[in-house]
Specification:
The protein has five helices and two strands. By secondary structure, the chain is mostly helical.
């Protein structure tokens, strides 16, 4: 697949995402602060997610259905999502990657990448600055 075909696919997916009625929340945690203690990382993710739900609880209740797209790739995150959402709401559906809803799963990945890249670039820049200071 050449570059123009890839651009067309990304452009199409981007426009689909814009036209879709999607609300999302991305929680990004700098894992370098938690490399030695997964319990602290799980606690941080749980607190951040609960904080988001607390501040948006009434809005979340207004939805007929809350759909969570997650590929169940990390057991700890799957457990956090299940525990928090299933204990606080009765209208939650976990969506896995299937052919009928593959586009929405791709949109979720696109949003996630869009949110992570600036964080990653700031981390790289910070690392480069510290290297420059060491020289």
């Amino acid at each position: 697949m050449d570059l123009n075909e890839r651009r067309h696919i990304i452009n199409t997916l981007f426009h689909f995402a814009i036209k879709s009625d999607i609300c999302y929340k991305t929680i990004i945690v700098d894992k370098t602060n938690y490399t030695n203690n997964f319990m602290w990382l799980n606690t941080r993710l749980t607190k951040d997610l609960n904080s988001f739900i607390d501040s948006n609880y009434e809005n979340l209740l207004s939805y007929d259905c809350i759909k969570i797209y997650y590929d169940r790739g990390q057991k700890e995150i799957t457990n956090i999502l299940n525990t928090i959402f299933l204990t606080r709401f009765n209208n939650v559906v976990f969506k896995e990657n299937n052919l009928h809803e593959y586009r929405l799963f791709q949109v979720a990945d696109l949003i996630n990448i869009n949110e992570e890249v600036p964080f990653f670039l700031r981390s790289v820049k910070k690392g480069m600055n510290s290297c420059r200071n060491d020289v």
